[in-house]
């Protein structure tokens, strides 16, 4: 009887954990260029215009970064899914994330991993995405 109770408790905990993680994952929404510009302005003020700190602040606000694991490659790939290279983009982001990982200097990690990932085709996609805001004006 105790064994059955323990098993039920374990399954209940597992289901609750799955529900919480599913809910957290479903809350994130694709950012628009407008959102990026608004958050960027806030982050510039908070970080006193220091580039690495501004970038880390921005990607955290957009839900693309955590201090524990760096960039969320899957979310970044979803933003640029229209380019039909999600797997390749995720590999680039994950590679740069690992290569530049430095948990004692989080701003530098975010900045250097960003520079690494955007040094190729992805950098052009980012510029195109950001230019959408200028077209809206």
From TrEMBL:
A GO term, aspect molecular function: odorant binding
Sorted alphabetically, which keywords does the UniProt record give?
Signal
Q: Does the keyword Signal apply?
A: yes
Q: Which residue positions does the secretion signal occupy?
A: 1-24
Q: What is this protein called?
A: Odorant-binding protein 99d
